[in-house]
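so i finally got all the pieces together for this one. its two components total, 476 residues if u count the protein bits. some of the lines might not be protein, just check the labels. i wanna see the whole assembly predicted at once instead of chain by chain like last time, that was a mess tbh
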Amino acid sequence: MVNWFSRKGKRAEVPRLRPRSEAEPALKVDLAELTPDLLTFLGKSAYLQLTIFENLGRTLALAPTTEAKETLSRVAALSLAKHHGLTAEIRRHGEEPGAVMQPFTAAIDEYQRTTQGADWHEELLACHITAGFLDDFFVHLASGLPSDYAGRVAAVLRADSGSELLAEQVRRSIDENTLLASRLAMWGRRLVGDTMLVARSTLALSANTVSDEARIEPVFTELIAAHTRRMDALGLTA
Amino acid sequence: MVNWFSRKGKRAEVPRLRPRSEAEPALKVDLAELTPDLLTFLGKSAYLQLTIFENLGRTLALAPTTEAKETLSRVAALSLAKHHGLTAEIRRHGEEPGAVMQPFTAAIDEYQRTTQGADWHEELLACHITAGFLDDFFVHLASGLPSDYAGRVAAVLRADSGSELLAEQVRRSIDENTLLASRLAMWGRRLVGDTMLVARSTLALSANTVSDEARIEPVFTELIAAHTRRMDALGLTA
């Protein structure tokens, strides 16, 4: 069994496909048995989504052209709609989003700090890579939610995040400055490592480590494969 | 005639009313003859609205509580919707928003720098005060747009900006820290001065300074009165 959290160097062999948005693979496995309780799921996913929005806002403010700003404003609107879709589910459950998100803010704020890019290009890649991975992860996990929530929450999470708009911006940056590619490839590896850890911390793990890992491993294999396709579509080595 | 851009110290006597959102006064005068061409109007108002959104994003990131972050996310969504309502009009006219906004970015970026608060409280007040003033100003100016645009654009500009949500946050900050009131009152004066200048720079002034001032003066008197009511509703001296 592969443990994604300690392996080094080895890379999964995945088919080189077109960008994810053009050929979204069906999810073959899920994490339903490790899904946390509803409010933990909603609080954590909603606050992560708010963090993604904050990062988009910062990236928008740094954008080098008015056109890039305009594109990011459209991505930001999609991201906010996703956040508000999740907080609407919190309210439907009779709770206040602020209070439900509160327990998860310290760890996620720390994740935000470690995934903050050094410049506009790194910020842009971070927005794309982290949102893509976390959307995929929470869609997997949503299948374990109570049945009156699972479908609606999955629909919110599957909604367009503007990933193709972000990917196009990253590709343009690389086209204009080919030296950027190796730096962004390294940055992508760092991002996915930190994002896997924050995702994993959401799982309701049992005392049985072997059985947990057996469930986690195939899902993270899929998530990494999707990440690799995402990097590939940018012309970057994952 | 009063020239709002050089007067010192004197304050207009205005009735102390409830918050603007509860008792929105009808606009009694307008600036139709000083309205610039359609694309200048749309480019400038859309980029100012994007700047307001950027400021909200920064304020959200600084918010001291998860609840305040959540409130600001709702205001940010309203602000983005307003920006996209204006860029939709630019596209309807067959132009790209980025290119149409471009000529106005340098001056508005400078305005953004001078109205950036020193802390969360100042940022929050800036979001409220600048959006309130600029919404009012562009609604006045919209009456001079071509008739197939004027109504739709005014409807976009009149849409809810979340001003009551922002006002409530400012009032809470002041309740928790009464020393803040005098600092914020001063900051409000600085904000309205800079905002009046950026608004004024949008006007299509003629060579006839006297006739221009005769048109501008009653409108700015109304805008200042609305600003004073807005400050008053926060318990702050304008």
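Residues 6-26 of chain B have pLDDT under 50 and may be disordered.
The CA atoms of residues 53 and 76 of chain B lie 6 Å apart.
anyway lmk what u think
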